[in-house]
Amino acid sequence: MQKISSLPEFIHFLKKGFELNEEDEQLILKYFEVQKVKKHEILLNTGEKCNKLYFVAEGLLRTFHLNKNGSEFTRLLAPEGKFCTILISFQEKISSAATIQALENGLLFFISHANFMEFISHSATAKNIYTKILEDYQNFQISRIEFLTSFSPQEKVEIFLKENPELEERLTDKIISSYLQIAPETYSRCRKKLQSGFEASL
Fold this sequence. Notes:
alpha+beta; Jelly Rolls; 2 domains; 4-stranded antiparallel sheet
């Protein structure tokens, strides 16, 4: 698990992808705040306006909503090193259709919408960071739709476990199945089938 415990280390993380000058660093120290969260803590409820852009330093966040049947649908999983927000709510200042929840005790860096707008007005690098966040979000949504509509439940489980081995141990079967949009019993059955196939190949 990646550990980031201070804003200077957050700056160091950003430097891996962006060129930050001294003014950029001072603006980050000025506008970003630190927040400790507890496991299961709700950071944003459905119906509230999302006023924060989070960066996960330690822990794991998810966004989810309830479908018409009252079942949870996990939209996004954000482990260490990822940004998290309800983008349309953050951008347009409208009510969020989803909830943001901490799945583990953790440490977040966040910036309010007002401070973020000031940040990007003073820094070209901040605009580049925002553009990257938007591009990543768009690419994720396209890939997510393709994933959910193109594969069988068994294939979804196999792909998820192959691409996210470190997350499996940190998530409940219920949350994983809600992320894959399959029933918990289906997830359990598909996972056992994969395990049986692996053991048979030994």
